Amino acid sequence: MNPELLSLYQEVIIDHGKNPRNLRSIDNAKSLEGFNPLCGDRLKLYVKVDENNVIEDVAFTGSGCAISMASASLMSEHIKGKHTNEAEKIFHAFHHLLTQDDVNDIEHDCLGKLQILSGVKAFPMRVKCATLAWHTLDGILHDSQDAITTEDEA
Ligand code: ZN
């Protein structure tokens, strides 16, 4: 990646890490806690889905490292207004982006701005920080009753 683009990406990540978007709770929404014991990142995700399974609102509370906050912030902006099936697809594409080398064009397309987090792949410890919000989202979409921990997940 060229250095100018890389530093631009880093600025966006730092900005979202310092000033996370949608850092609040939502009344009458589904919620679930997520925890990354390796880093100490802890968040609670709120997702409000309308009768057509479209994500009407998404927000989170909690605290963690800049990567976990930036990823949750970027995720909240990206999945708002999307169908839950689409959000699920984006989760898998994002997970793929951070763990595999062969991301296909369809995945690139649905990730959009989220691709700025791809640099995290070079730091395996931080992958769990970046995917925490997403695993928690996946838990909510599957009606998980238990808090999500990244302990046994890649
Ligand atoms: Zn972290």
Task: Please write out the topology.
Blueprint: H1 3-18, E1 30-36, E2 41-49, E3 55-63, H2 66-79, H3 84-99, H4 105-111, H5 124-141, E4 148-149
Parallel strand pairs: 1-4
Antiparallel strand pairs: 1-2, 2-3
Helix pairs in contact: 1-2, 2-5, 3-4, 3-5
The chain binds zinc ion.
Instruction: Name the shape in a single word.
Output: globular
Radius of gyration: 14 Å
Distance between the termini: 25 Å
Class computed from helices, strands and strand pairing? alpha+beta
List segments where confidence is low: pLDDT < 50 over at least 5 consecutive residues.
none
Short description:
The protein has 154 residues and is α+β, with helices and mostly antiparallel strands. It contains 5 helices and 4 strands; from the N terminus they run αβββααααβ.
Question: Please, could you describe this protein's structure?
Answer:
This protein is α+β, with helices and mostly antiparallel strands and 154 residues long. The chain is built from 5 helices and 4 strands, in the order αβββααααβ. It has a 4-stranded mixed beta sheet, with helices on one face. A hairpin with a 4-residue loop joins strand 1 and strand 2 (41-49). Helix 1 crosses helix 2 (66-79), helix 2 (66-79) packs parallel to helix 5 and helix 3 packs across helix 4. The structure holds zinc ion. Zinc ion (ZN) binds next to helix 2. The site of zinc ion has 8 residues, from helix 2.
